[in-house]
Amino acid sequence: MLYKIIRNDILKSKLITLTTMIFVAAASMLVSLAAILVINLSGAIDGLMRQAETPHFMQMHSGELDRARLEAFAAGNGDVKNFQLLEFLNVDGSEIIIGENSLAGSVQDNGFCTQSGKFDYLLDLDGNIIEAKDGELYVPIAYMRDGTAKIGDRADIDGKVLRVAGFLRDSQMNASLASSKRFLISDSDYTEILESGTVEYLIEFRLNDISLLSDFENSYAAAGLSANGPTITYPLFKFINAISDGLMIAVILLISMLIVAIAFMCIRFSLLTKIEDDYRDIGVMKAIGLRIRDIKKIYLSKYTVIAASGCILGFALSLVFKGMLLENIRLYMGESDKSSLELLFGIIGVLFIFSVIIIYVNEVLKRFRKISASEAIRFGISQENRSGSKHFRLSGNRLLNPNIYLGIKDVLSRKKLYLTMLAVLVISTFIIIVPQNLYNTISSKNFIKYMGIGDCDIRIDIQQTEDISEKAAEILDSMKSDSTVSSYALMSTKTYRLYLDNGLEQRLKIETGSHSIFPVEYSEGRLPEAEREIALSAMNASELGKKVGDRISVEIDGKLRALTVCGIYSDITNGGKTAKAVFSDNSAPVMWTVICAELADKSLIGGKVSEYAQNFDFAKVSDIDEYILQTFGSTMNSVGMASIAAIAVALIITVLITLLFMKMLIAKDRYSTAVMKALGFTNSDITAQYISRSVFVMIAGIVFGTFLANTLGELLAGAVISSFGASSFKFSVNPFVAYLFCPLAMIVTVLAATIIGTSGAGKLKISENIKE
Amino acid sequence: MKNIVIGRDIVKSFGKGGEKRNVLDGVSVEINEGEFVSVMGPSGSGKSTLMFALSGMDSVDSGKIAFDGSDLSGLKENELADILRTKMGFVFQQPTLLKNLNILDNIILPSMRGNRRKAAEITEKARMLMKDVSIDELAERDITQVSGGQLQRAGICRALMNNPRIIFGDEPTGALNSKSAQEIMQLFSEINADGTAVMLVTHDAKVAAQTERIMFMSDGKIVSEMYLPENSGTDIDDRIKKVTAKMQEIGI
After folding, report:
1. How far apart are alpha carbons A356 and B232 in whole angstroms?
2. B119: part of which helix (H) or strand (E)?
């Protein structure tokens, strides 16, 4: 009996049933995919870091190295399980040519090393420790991905010829967000090219217990050991490895949430319509004493069938598509050792979707309680007041064509009904605009603000060289006399001892210079102006527990000085831990210097970059767009792809829902259509009324959706971006795209779907439909 | 007198294959300008179908229907809609008013199409008509806030808005109590007296007895016809007796 009711019901409403099922399937597919990805990503990262034996603590250092003290520190510290000192031969990109490609334009620090002896191994694509033979070059996987190198390529390293023998996975520096890349060569080849670059040291520790990491960090800093370079710890390595794919998972989850919401709306709409159709029957069932639970069962079982089939289909699809999404993880990190769990977690995800739907249907069905048996039997329709908009009268209307008036009036009188469509349009607008804005933001020049430097055209890095200050002065001199350079600023980073409130000390990298010329965005406070002011990066501020107005003690030129925190800014470079100040100090050695410049004529940027690169071969000169592209290229690409996918998905959803909604409306409104036809309204009048309804709802949807995208969307995107170390995220909106193209695409889609969906609205037999 | 509606050999069937049934089986009808006619017959005799066919609202399988000299089957959809809106008026058994408009807006609805600049004029006319049928107090009410008889009057006002040549009524008193029904019939008489043709479909002898000509239908055919001109007696009971006698005579 129940089976028969469900079957008939499904057969009668094939379109809506199918659509609901498709949305459920899509949602479960995405959730299951996200679960599978999470499991694989975490498994692959763990696997990679375990096989490679990634250091728990790594201090990069350039310049003189006190080897003996380090060894003594390692031997004397009970937490240290293993210690090693690796060399990283930093070679300028222009000296590295692989096949036809020079790495001159690379913003990465490209360096050469030999396989390490104790841990931190460089692995081949099968996860084995590579033994490089003489003449062999193993290239970081990122260069395989972007097509720079392929196996068998001839490589020329400052005259030394090698052959690309394979690619390597580097558990530290795989991600493009890691700013260095390690190439692996044999010991003797390494000795041969030693003169071609500068040696940097990787001081690496593995601890007995990783939970002691922060204590260890403090004791390393307190010991005053070599620390002229960034410090990176195990959790940060893990995080950097997870970012790109993690973002993808976040986007997938976001989209699946939206799709679930849309599936809910389909369910709500069809349920409400069905309840209205069956109003009298429900009343009768109540009157003859059926319990609400029994009545609900009839409706619930249909959705159980839909949800179950959708979930099974979605799960199956996720197994089909997972390969595509896992490709990147597999390439960069290898197979996950937890992949046996992926099915389990996929199923858990799908079951979650299933239960959410059933709970929702149950909620909607609660309105059965409100149906009065006597009223239902007597009137057959719900006696809700439909007029709502009493003051919007046809008799007072001179402005609107009656068809437009009737469309708008209908929307106003049946707000609840149109809420479904409105919500879908709001969501669609939202998922079109947010990824677009996010993409536009991270690909815009302004995004540099979140990278700890201001908005400029050219960035010149001087590091890993002697006499940084003199060399920087040389460049500045040349800029001063260069009329095409409209403004420039120099910022030098040095490390200082920071005395914490608990008595411990720590190293703090402080960038001094003219911060006011290319200011970064300050999420709180402002840039440092006085000698005794300091601005902290968001990550540093939260780690040190400092707010604007607080003080920190820094040792400058042998004297302890209290600096007031005047601002907090976003920085996603250098592990997110930097500080800015304007005090002058010539005592500490410069770790690196950055010169930013702006040109009056932007068309000259390309030429100037090569000019400066040629004149100052010790410096790394990059066009700022190029700089962002290289640091954030893969993330930008993922977001760009996601935003295109989001547009496609949103438009498809819009078409589907609009079509569906119109079809349901037409079915629901047959009576009033018949009346209008009898009164002499034409088919095109009827279609015009439907178009007027959907245009009215659409305008509201687009306006509201755009508003939400720029408020809630910005918050959401900000949450994602802040995980990189940026705070106070603001969309930089491309008005042409966000306010013209996106709404236009929506309008065209909704209109097309409405016209297609309602073209036959007037074609009905008046005589058959005019009797209520 | 000039014919306003002419139907010739109208055939219309419902169903398919073996279940196909002629609901109109070669019906020919003429209605004159200003005439007051009714069609009587038992349920399923085809009387409502005939009304929908004559008004052009339903297509027919064969036969010819002309309204005011033009062949309805040859008209485009828009032309037919124009005729429905400007030359015909309809009153149905259930008041076919739209739920989301108030009484006044329902009445002016068909007149507003293409005439929104004349809204004031149209509203004025609607108010006059409403006054004529004593519902002028109800203009701003929702349709759920008035009685069935009042709704039916509103429906008649709507039908009269464009000064139609003919008003079709499909059981217009079928859902009303006898007092309201009589008031509505009185209205139709007055409309007819002003020169508008009226064609009512009914199974109620009392309704039919108040018209000038009655066509009796059975099984898709007009089986008989009787004239009850005004001068054939004004006593309503007398006229009803004549109609029922005729019904018995032809066996419907």
Report:
1. 76
2. helix B119-132
Contacts of B118 in chain A (CB under 8 A): none
In this structure, the answer to whether residues A287 and A342 fall within a common structural domain is yes
State yes or no: pLDDT of A625 exceeds 60: yes
Q: Is B20 on the interface with A (CB under 8 A)?
A: no
Residue A480: count of CB within 10 angstroms of its CB: 10
Average pLDDT, chain B: 89
Tell me: do A46 and A95 sit in the same domain: no
- Is residue A759 pLDDT above 60, yes or no? yes
Shared domain for A574 and A705, answered yes or no, is no
Gap between the Cα atoms of A253 and A37, Å rounded: 11
Same domain, A404 and A338: no
For A77-83, the CB contacts below 8 A with 24+ separation are A77/A216, A77/A219, A78/A208, A79/A207, A79/A208, A79/A209, A79/A212, A79/A215, A79/A216, A80/A205, A80/A206, A80/A207, A80/A208, A80/A216, A81/A206, A81/A207, A81/A208, A82/A118, A82/A119, A82/A205, A82/A206, A83/A204, A83/A205, A83/A206
Contacts of B124 in chain A (CB under 8 A): none
Q: Does B128 touch chain A (CB under 8 A)?
A: no
Check CB contact under 8 Å for B102 and A387.
Answer: yes
CB-based contact B246:B216 (threshold 8 Å): yes
B160-191, pLDDT tens digit by residue?
998 899 999 998 988 788 888 888 898 899 99
A286 is written with which tokens? 């109540």
Segment A663-692 shows an average pLDDT of: 88
- Say whether residue B215 is in contact with chain A using an 8 A CB cutoff: no
Least confident range of A232-241, B8-17, B55-64, B109-118: B109-118
- Where is average pLDDT lowest: A255-259, A473-477, A488-492, A767-771? A767-771
- Asked whether residue A480 falls in the same domain as residue A608, the answer is yes
Q: Is residue A567 located within the same domain as residue A432?
A: no
**Closest-CA residue in chain B for A410?**
B100
Residues A456 and A608 sit within 8 Å (Cβ to Cβ): no
A609 in the same domain as A637? no
CA dist., res. A448 & res. A622, Å (int): 13
The residue with greater pLDDT, A95 or A107, is: A95
pTM: 0.67
How would you list the strands of the sheet with B70-71, edge to edge? B21-32, B3-14, B62-67, B70-71
Structural domain including A92 reads 84-205
Q: Is A398 in Cβ contact with B117 (below 8 Å)?
A: yes
Binned at pLDDT 50, 70 and 90, residue A728 comes out as: low
Whether the CB-CB separation of A302 and A10 falls below 8 Å is answered with yes
Q: What is the pLDDT of residue B158?
A: 92
pLDDT grade for B211, boundaries at 50, 70 and 90: very high
Task: With beta carbons under 8 A apart, name residues in chain B contacting A683.
Answer: 77
CATH topology classification for B3-250:
Rossmann fold (3.40.50)
Could you report the per-residue pLDDT of A689-705, keeping only the tens digit for each? 999 999 999 999 999 99
Among partner residues A387, A401, A682, which is closest to B78 by beta-carbon distance?
A682
Residue numbers in A near B116 (CB within 8 A): 397-402
